[in-house]
Amino acid sequence: MEVHDVELTISAVAPKQYPKGSLPEVALAGRSNVGKSSLINTLINRKAYARTSSQPGKTQTLNFYNVESTVYFVDVPGYGFAKVSKTAREKFGQMIETYLSTRDRLRGVILLVDARHDPSDDDISMHEWLNYYNIPMLVVATKSDKIARGKWNQAESRIRKGLNMTPDDAYIQFSAETKQGKDAVWNWIEQQAGL
Length: 195
Ligand code: GTP
Ligand code: MG
What we know:
Structural class: alpha/beta
Number of strands: 7
Number of helices: 5
CATH superfamily: P-loop containing nucleotide triphosphate hydrolases
Helix content: 25-40%
Strand content: 15-25%
Distance between the termini: 9 Å
Shape: globular
CATH class: Alpha Beta
Strand order of the largest sheet: 1-3-4-2-5-6-7
Order of helices and strands: EEHEEHEHEHEH
Low-confidence stretches: none
Mean pLDDT: 92
CATH topology: Rossmann fold
Bound molecules: guanosine-5'-triphosphate, magnesium ion
């Protein structure tokens, strides 16, 4: 999709703040610092519209980005961020679970994992949880610019195995640096959102 207009409609912490209307939504989930906000910026051709940081825990609310008045991208706070208190973590967890399990116009979730590492226990739990709720999912292995081209296949097998994915489950390798995978991710979004 050619993106010209993007607007941060709302940073929500509770369901009553979710946007009104009927646009489809696609959410981005993954551990802190994995590159969710960077993926959004790549998809909308902006450098820093969605705030990114080398410090994990940057995104702390459900940020609804209205893209071309056609679809919302929902930037979700990262999990597995040790520096916030346990209470804060539980509150985050609830906010995310409430959104993902109750939002009827959620068309799919992009689960980001780091292409360089084995999926963490939190990644595995999130993957299982999304499957349990039957939420269409795309696994994106990000920061692929940080591994050699010759290791890409190996990374894919490692991640597929770690997350217990079937060969039919969607997987795309991505880099916000090189834009690798950008079109493939857009295609998946367009399909899920019926654009
Ligand atoms: P939280 O909001 O804390 O959950 O993090 P996030 O998942 O939104 O991560 P963010 O997009 O803020 O990126 C974290 C850091 O990783 C930043 O320093 C980014 O520049 C860097 N980063 C993100 N994607 C890539 C990528 O594809 N390649 C490289 N080399 N760096 C990346
Ligand atoms: Mg973020």
